[in-house]
Specification:
This protein is globular. It has a single domain, classed as Beta Barrel (Elongation Factor Tu (Ef-tu), domain 3), CATH 2.40.30. A 5-stranded antiparallel sheet has the order 1-4-3-2-5, covered by helices on one side. A hairpin with a 2-residue loop joins β2 and β3. The relative contact order is 0.26. By secondary structure, the protein is of the alpha+beta class. The protein is built from 2 helices and 5 strands, in the order αβββββα.
Length: 112
């Protein structure tokens, strides 16, 4: 379980303006330290991890290795990759996260 969760930085966003229909996995641009960096975000209730959980935004920022916990960052959703899904186990979830990262990187390779 921890391996899958370590892939993502979890944020507790202000939900004003975020609609339930937006839940899913998205390619995103993160504003970190006045830089725009690409990544992948999961917006939803994490049905594989916990039933009945409140919505969270989890973001994996590509090629970024700095301690930013406790800092404000901006997340801009650019392209929806897929809807939120429940997986049979955490190994299946971890495999899908890797696929999501690949798809988001492919998306960014095609846009300027």
């Amino acid at each position: 379980m921890q391996q899958a969760l370590d892939l993502l930085a979890t944020l507790d966003p202000d939900w004003a303006g975020v609609e339930v229909g937006q839940h899913g996995t998205l390619a995103c641009l993160s504003g970190v330290e006045r830089r725009g960096v690409t990544g992948v975000a999961s917006l939803g209730v994490r049905p594989t991890v916990k039933q009945g959980a409140r919505p969270l935004l989890e973001t994996f920022v590509f090629d970024f290795d700095e301690a930013i916990y406790g800092r404000r960052i901006a997340i801009e959703f650019l392209h929806k990759l897929r809807d939120e899904e429940r997986y049979d186990d955490l190994d299946a979830l971890t495999r899908q996260i890797r696929v999501d990262v690949e798809h988001a990187r492919d998306y960014f390779a095609t846009v300027k």
